[in-house]
Amino acid sequence: MLKKMLLLAVLLVVAPVSQLMAADEAPSALKSALEQLIPDEKPDRVSPSPIKGLYEVAYGTTIFYISGDGKYILQGDLIDVADRKNLTSFTRRAARGDIAKGIKKENTIVFAPKGKPADHVVYVFTDIDCPYCRKLHNEIGDYNDAGIEVRYLLFPRAGVNSPSYQKAVDVWCAKDRADALTQSKAGQPVPKGSCKNPVKEHLALGEEVGVSGTPAILLETGDLIPGYRPAADLRKILDGIAAHEAAGK
Fold first, then answer.
1. 243 within some domain
2. Range list of H helices, 19-80
C-alpha cells in the first residue's frame, strides 16, 4: 500500500545517512508534506542529505529525497561523483539489514551444520519450482559443510493461488518441513496441506527487500546476493563481508 501511495504521489528517491534525526525533529513544513502524502505511515527515519536543504526520508527500504519546505521530491539514486559511490545503496542496505535481523528463525525452514555452530547464517528466498533453487538445495550439504546455516523463506514467484504457492503451503504444513521441502524440490509429491502459514508474509518480505528472482540470499548485514552461488564461492563472499564489517567497527 505504501509503495502504491508513493508512486501515486510521484515519489521514490534515496540518499545517504549523515545525521540521523527523529521524524519529530524534521522541519515542520517537511513533516506536514509527509503527513499529506502518506497520512497513515510514519517514516522510520529522516536525515539531512549531503545536498543542503534536501532531506532523506526512509520508510523501510523505500527511500526518497524531499526539500525542507516540503515543496519538492526527487526520484533516483544519489551518487557521490568524486568517490564514485552510490550513496543510496548504503541506505537501502541498512534498511534490509534491519529487516533481516527481525526475521524469526522459527518462521523459516532451517538447514544447519551438524555437530558444530554455523560460521554464517543466510536467508534464502526460494521457489520450489525454480531450477537454480533446486540446484542450490541439491548441494545443501555442501553449504552446511562450509559452515553456512541456510534459513529458507518461501517465495513462489508465480504468486498467490499458483501451483507453486500451494506447494509452498504444503511444505510448510508438513510434519517435517525440511524433509518435505527436499521432497518437493526433487519433484516428489507432498501431501496437500492446510494450516496457518507464513508464505504470504515471506512473499511480502521478499518484495520489501527487493527480491526480483530466486534464489536470493539475504544477510543480516543487509547485503542481498542474487542467484545461485556454489558453497565455496558463497563462503568466500561471506568471509569477505564479515572481514569488512569487522574492520569498520
1. yes
2. 28-37
- Confidence (pTM): 0.80
* 18 — pLDDT class (breaks 50, 70, 90): very low
Residues 82, 113: Cα–Cα separation, whole Å: 44
Nearest to 107 by CA among 213, 200, 193: 200
Catalytically annotated residues: 127, 130, 133, 157
Residue 81 lies inside a defined structural domain of this protein: yes
User: Once rounded to an integer, what is the mean pLDDT over residues 129-146?
Assistant: 97
Cα separation values, 102 from 8, 90, 182, 209, Å: 29, 19, 26, 13
Taking only the tens place, the pLDDT of each residue in 40-87 is 888 888 888 888 989 988 888 888 889 989 888 887 788 889 888 888
Amino acid at 3: K
Q: For residue 81, which amino acid is it?
A: V
Structural domain boundaries, residue 155: 105-248
CATH code for the domain in which residue 111 is found: 3.40.30.10
Cell numbers 508512486 correspond to 7
Q: How many helices (H) and strands (E) does the chain have?
A: 9, 11
